[in-house]
Amino acid sequence: MPTVVRVQPNSCGLPCVPTTLEILDAGSTRVTGGCPACREEAAAFRDAGLPSPREAGGDALSEKIGAAAAILQEARAPFIYGLGRSATVVARRAAALAAILGGAVDIEGADVAGADLLALQSFGLPGATFGEIRNRADLLLLWRCDPRATHPRLFERPSRTPCARMEARVVVIVPAGTAAPPAGAGDDLAAGGAAHRATDLVLPACSGSDLGIALSLRALVNDISPVGESIGGVPLAVLRQAAERLRRARYAAILWDPAATAGVGGDAVALSLALLARDLNRHTRCVARPLGAGGNVAGAMAALAAACGYPRAVSFASGTPLYGPGEHDAARMIGEGRADALVLVGARSRGERPESDRPGRRDRGRARVIAIGPRLPRGFDEADVFIKTAVPGISAPGSAGRADGLHVALPAGLPPAGPAEETVLEMITLQVQALRRSSHAQDPERPDR
Fold this sequence. Notes:
Blueprint: E1 3-7, E2 19-23, E3 29-33, H1 36-45, H2 61-74, E4 78-82, H3 88-101, E5 104-107, H4 114-122, H5 130-136, E6 139-143, E7 170-174, E8 201-202, H6 210-221, E9 230-231, E10 234-235, H7 236-248, E11 251-256, H8 266-280, E12 285-290, H9 297-308, E13 314-315, E14 322-323, H10 330-333, E15 341-345, E16 368-373, E17 385-388, E18 398-401, E19 407-410, H11 421-442
Parallel strand pairs: 4-5, 4-15, 6-7, 6-11, 7-8, 11-12, 15-16, 16-17
Antiparallel strand pairs: 1-2, 2-3, 5-13, 9-10, 13-14, 18-19
């Protein structure tokens, strides 16, 4: 008989239905339910093609902990990376270990949220939970995203409630990946193509025109008419129609994909969307929210900010936390070889930029690698120490932060395949502290680092 379990992989960072993992008698796995990202994570859990790393210290967990602590004790520039697919408590443990080591810590996937953080710091974001948006919003402005395709229940009003009797929701969408406006585009673009619903008002903005479109919508909302007959491939009449719908809405929600604001000029786009929401609040109720970077990036950033005051790319080398995106992140510490010891916690990739984007790489020798997680990150064929752990939401319980700031429980549907990541980090921290006490007792004049 096949074994059927319901799990909750923490891969999308959005309200998602549970994923069903059906383990067949032949050892194969069938995955259903959930969104594509969560199904991929659940399927990877049963992947038997894991690489065979060089596990220094032998097979015993205590020996691996000792080997990892010895590497970190000798390191001059340790770097902790990952945490975006881990439970929230893991980020707090990682910050504590980085503070003891005098190293740096960064979160995988948090780099795409840089523009959103800047908008939040500069002007604030009038936010709301996804539940409030689902129940109250009568207009959605979807900027380079359409979560209705992967999360169809995200904005469905619950049946048998007063919300279910509300008028049909208006959707204004700037589709992702539009290279040029469709042939024959005119004033009425509501049809929008096969990928969109017939009632959607589609703004087919050309690639690279996001800032112009956002500024034009702001101008029209404030009764200022932009110059020209079209902006970024969108006819001005259509932009007027979108602005009028935004102003008439009782409750508007602006949602965007952080990847759309991660490139060149993305900061200005995120700031413009935040200001558009602020301007709309003079006429109606409007909220603005990025859809998040996936996984538990939002929860990890919140935990790191609570621990040291900064959400990502933090260095403790000076004894106090220093915030340095572009200086203490993976692109610099791993990509340019500035770290001599890497602690990869639940990481899925190396986190560095492509080789062509790293002109100043410093060859300081191979960094010692300590991998903690269900599998090795892509790009690492071996590790000096590999401690296989359980997966939050599949084989280990925990909690995670959604993109809207709510924290949700991650129950374990399967027996653990190893210790939890937070347990491993705590054991390494205690072992490092013991080594430092022993070293100081033998040589009181020797500095800790």
